[in-house]
Amino acid sequence: MQLSKTRRGRIGERLNEYFSTIGGLSLFTVEFFKTFLVPPYEFAEIKKHMDELGVKTLPIVSVTGFIIGLVLAMQSQPVLIRFGAESFLPGMVALTVVRELGPVLTAIIFAGRVSSGIGAELGSMRVTEQIDAMEVSAVNPFKYLVVTRVIACTLILPVLTVYVIFIAIMGGYIAITLSQSMNFNYYVNSLMLSIRFGDFVPGVAKTFVFGFIVGMVGAYKGYTAENGTEGVGKASTTSVVVSSLIILLFDMVLVKLTLWLWPT
Prior knowledge:
The protein is mainly α. It has one domain. It is built from eight helices and no strands. α3 packs antiparallel against α5 and α3 packs parallel to α7 (197-223).
């Protein structure tokens, strides 16, 4: 009976934390939209964060993109050979990467690298009272610390996604070339015949939403951190988990929406 009460207490605590996070994040998002259009505009700070987030994330997304294309081509080739459809391999790799794997996996990697960093950075500033000091100095910390990072994430993730798609397609070509001799021009022509404008635009467009989610969740967890260094660690960890989960949930909705707007 005691164990059952303890378990029920933990479940209630988790549910309370879950709904508190959803409610707090919603209010935090409303505050963002109320603030980011109000001058002054911190363009220099946004540019600085875009440079930092893009350059520091480039190595890991490069490796990820190459492996995506390589493994996808290697795994798909035997299946297509079984059905006599080996000639469709370049187009299948390209469509899979462009429409779904490239945007989603890039967003997940970006969340693991960036959202945790934002959570830890802002969390440290919160527990060391640097944010309070900015408020006393008549500086709007929300605009300077949160809005700039969220906008930077929103703008840089689509750029990284296009880069990952290109790297993944090259990885697919290398995998196909290692198993069979395929002319590069034939590979490119197959891609051009398979990919339409309606395939590329939705896949890249939804990464603006994913980038916004990554920046917003990381900023929220860090900005509201408490309980000292323990709170900083918790903010860093939970920001990755929450942002990754929300990305996957939004992806389901956006896939249905894009299929409706741009039917195949």
